Amino acid sequence: MENKIELKRSMGIWSGLAMVIGTVIGSGIFFKQAGVLQTAGSSTAGLLAWIVGGVITLAAGLTIAEVGARLPKTGGLYSYIEELYGPAAGFLAGWMQVVVYAPAVIASIAGYAAFLTANFLGLSQSSATWISVIFVVFVAGINMLENRVPAAFQVATTSIKLVPIAVLIVYGLFFGKVDALGQTVHQVATTGGGFGMAILATLFAYDGWILLSNIAGELKNPRRDLPRSIVGGLLIVVLAYVGVTFGVYHALPSDKIVALQNNATFAVVRAAFGDFGGRALSLAIIISMLGTLNGKVLSFPRMAYAMSLDGLFPKYLSKLTRKTQEPVNAIITVTLMTVLLDIFYTKGVDRLSDIAIFTIWIFYTAAFFGVFILRRQVKKGLLAEQDTLFKTPLFPITPLVAIFGALFVLGSTIINDFAGAALSIVLVLIGLPVFYYYKKKRV
């Protein structure tokens, strides 16, 4: 009887949109303004970097939307890569995300939210670790309930995080007195890369939208809702990021933004609402990051669940509770790995997640090529075509833009952080013996 319990298809388009928006918009939009501007060298180039990053991300989303519509399975990137390139490649895509990236990125987000919370409450920074653990356990607890609960939490936190974004856009547009374009930054970043590295920084701020595909099996109509949520959510994110950037540039001189660094957006809000505004923004960012945390905890265990169903991870990870129909064992396992990382690996969690991002972009690139493979299969009659299926517009230009963006990320990382790129590949290849172990067990 237990093997008949399946994930509940109860999430609609609003949950999907909230998942995309809430998972992407964390703290980057509030804290990356100065870094991107300083690297780009001028306000015009800085704004253009956010726009180009948004165009590449939209191209990626439109490409994956077709892949996801053709392969609407729980597991996301793992399922896509497995279907396109075989079990070994699929396992490595899932292995990296579940074992390395998931606990690292969840711990990183929770840690930063805890740091802000300690500051907000006037607590010592030594308490941040335990606040981080509380956040992770709290969000995990929400995700052990029926999936409508974390979906509702996602919608609520996403709605709240859009408020300070709207404030920054409106205040900057209508009350800012600085020329947003044409300002030159005198203190340009010395790390090199210029405009290209500025685009790279925005691409990392845009990352996370693909995690919606991990819960495709819980969408009411994944062939329809998955592409609509990805494309619609990314359009809102791009408009929000570009709007906030223009608003901040219109409210503060470029050199002041660079001088303020992480406090630039706080300065804009304080100018509008005083110290109360600054504290309100801090609270909104904390809530924003809890929403991002929820999106990660909601999605990553689904990948572990899907891999367990395929016999590639321990069987207990594929167990669903009869009452809530949730992969509680997978959620507990990912949570436990995160908490242990949070407590005992106090330095370098951000570094670990940055290294893992390089590898994820390798699999992104492979998934983007997948749209060509799937269309070729349709042409050969190996895959059924559907009239109502979402198709990537402006094909093949759109997927080529996505592939170019992915290759740019990979090339830039190799040039600027060869050791990190090499380490990430080693972490992936460690998964091969694990894959062959489980493959042998299935025979």
From TrEMBL:
Subcellular location: Membrane
Name under which the protein is recorded: SteT_2 protein
Species name: Weissella cibaria
Coarse class of the protein's main subcellular location: membrane
InterPro entries on file: AA/rel_permease1, AminoAcid_Transporter
Keywords associated with the record: Membrane, Transmembrane, Transmembrane helix
UniProt membrane topology term: Multi-pass membrane protein
GO annotation, cellular component aspect: membrane
One MF term in the entry's GO annotations: L-amino acid transmembrane transporter activity
Transmembrane segments annotated in the record for this chain: 12-31, 47-69, 90-115, 127-145, 152-174, 194-217, 229-252, 272-293, 328-346, 352-374, 394-415, 421-438
Pfam families: AA_permease_2
